[in-house]
Amino acid sequence: MTSNRIREVSLAIFAKNGYEGSSLADISSEVGIKKQSIYTHFKGKDELFLAVLHDVFLNELKFVTSYIESHAHHTAEKALFGFLMAYKDRYEENDNTKFWLRMSFFPPSHLYEQVMKYVYDNLDKMESLFAPIMEKAASEGSISPSVGAERATVAFMGILDGVFVEMLYGGPGRLMKRIDASWYLYWRGVSKE
Predict the structure, then answer these.
(1) In order of start, what are the domains of the chain with their CATH numbers?
(2) Per residue in 107-130, pLDDT tens?
């Protein structure tokens, strides 16, 4: 039970303060235990951070998978735009997503390789989850044959990257402006009109 509580508190603190701005003393104080008690469950801050990162990685993939499954009956246009909006809402409300994006762009330098392995695994899995949506849209004639499903999927990941950057830096108004303009041009560029 304490291990799970340590992870929960660590997630919130890492999401808010980043790796460097978080201390085991802050975490233990928030959990209500002595700092030394953390070492019963984790070797140190790095191990705790990577355990939280692993949990968040699984939660973010679960969210993406669940969203795609629950919107399988929608058109590609509606499902993909809806995903951008759902992820915007998730970022505003969820420490998992805040932590995930912050660490994706600002990993601790000494843990860079371990963090980026999770980041690239996540991006590759997300791309593989979006690919069938584009393949279906292409087979139905919604995607221009000159674009193709693969290129449309990779371009969507580029849109998603831009949205992630605006989530971190821009605030809600700039984020919506970025989503609206990017989506408008993206969909008109890949769709068959």
Answers:
(1) 53-190 (1.10.357.10)
(2) 999 999 999 999 999 999 999 999
